[in-house]
Amino acid sequence: MNGLTLLATGSAAGSRVVTNDDFAKTLDTSDEWIYSRTGIHERHFCKEGESCVSLAREAAKKALLRAKIAPEDIDCCIAATVSGDATSPGVACSLQKDLGLREDIPVLDVNAACSGFLYGMEVARGFLESGKQRRTLSGKTDGYALVIGCEQLSRLLDLKDRATCVLFGDGAGAAVFKSKENARYASLLGARGGEEIVVPGPGDGERKIMMDGKAVFRFAVEALPKTLKALLAQSGLTLDEVDWVVCHQANSRIIDHCVRSMKADPSKFYKNMDHFGNTSAASIPMALDEMAGKGLLKAGQTILLDGFGAGLTWGGALLQTDAQMNRFCLSEVSK
Ligand code: UT7
Fold it and tell me: In the annotation, is 46 catalytic?
């Protein structure tokens, strides 16, 4: 079976920074309450003219540039989102046109809430696997997937509900994956059902995101370590052999629980929710891109990804950064 390796990343965030102190001007809340409960100090919201699609486009362009892959070389494009500009055309279809991707490749959106990027990766792997024969016939050896997690959650927030509106932000993260035979790769996905988080869809009028925070917290602290342990067992690896663990960036305390439960080194667990908040499906690829920009991701590393979200979906992946990952220079990373 072919697995995926990570070739390059890109990201974008809404350009309006909203701090906890900004919320405290209109709500009965404080930076102390929000930061101590969540690890979040600020988040980015879209400005007029920005949207889920525009953030996704910016992130995807950066990832393609850094991968040194032409848009025509991409063999499938998956966008994970619960807040696309429209139900149809989906974000991935908009990108197909905007980025100049080929017309004979599968492009679609997946909705698995905050686990969406992990679901998107596995959908992409399946497409790359099923397209293998056709690629071989046309003389192509490698298959490439563009997977994006992107959200404009600010438009779905009830800005009077202090229990939810302070948690989320707008952003997009993109990754170019390469299909590789016998790659070190494992994926686990699942869902428990339930309405602990409800994200309204088209036809829901003025409804906004609703959440039973405590129930989601209980689910998350159980699901995250369980998934990591299962991925390690499936891959025959120990946590010591993994370079980085990148969890969904919902809440710093949830990641701390996971670290304790794994008896792990906390410095292996990357966190950046302090300046982006919870960006749902975008949080894992945005974190990966920030790590790449800081030079933390290097060719040939092993990384574990782990997420949970509405639905109650969960998922994880173990994969390696591609041997070609660092062929783009750091000056390009900051563009
Ligand atoms: O991608 C998945 C997304 N969801 C999550 O990850 C959510 C996971 N859950 C959590 O992160 C936490 O449950 C929260 C951060 C959402 C809430 O923390 P908590 O410690 O579970 O607080 P709580 O909901 O039990 O609320 C405690 C108190 C309540 O007041 P009373 O009833 O004790 O008087 C809330 O009304 O805190 C109040 N409260 C706030 N106070 C100040 C709720 N939100 C705020 C706020 N500022 N922003």
Answer: no
